[in-house]
Amino acid sequence: MQTPKVDYRQMSIKRLKEPQFSHLFLLLGWVVYFALFFLTENLIPTEKCFPVHCVLDDMIPFCEAFLIPYVGWYFLIVWSLVYFLLYNVENFKRLQVFIIVTQAVAMIAYIFIPTRQDLRPIVFPRDNFLTDCVALLYSLDTNTGVCPSLHCAYSIGIASVWLKEKGVTWRLKTFVVVCAVLICLSTMFIKQHSAVDFFAALPVCLLAEIIACGGYWKKRLLHK
Fold it and tell me: Which residues pair with 144 in a beta bridge?
């Protein structure tokens, strides 16, 4: 069993500025994000949002089974952040900076180019536990603020950082990558996002990768 790289039992508010704990300030990005998310969700009316749609959306059927990886996204985020927080602070910083960059770009887009999707089925093709859960999800999450998709952006960032982790097996890395792919697909199959939202997330992820992991790639290139 691995030993945590930082002993957080010694942490206190007064010691947060010390080098061994200062990386925790990056978690404040979530506070800013949730505040902005709340404002955009409640202050921008649906009729002011541009509908996002493409031909590919019409080719993708609704499939409630994809709710499982969609919800699994939340657990993947928490597990990844906690793991890196304990065992690889450098990768924690990379992942958290990646997330902050994608959050910042997405919030700017949601505010200045507000979007929505009208893909949700009026009547589900099947009636079962998962469709009931999807209906609950629809009631809790509006169809606005969709492009680019943060579900996809975070997943790509998580996969990217896990692939850079030296202390785990390739089986685990493969598992994370498969989870990321399924999560990206899930956003389209349960009609939470348009395919446009996924493709819009790709350049955002590239920017985040450059900012968060530029030093890593620079070392790799110099080593080669």
Answer: 116
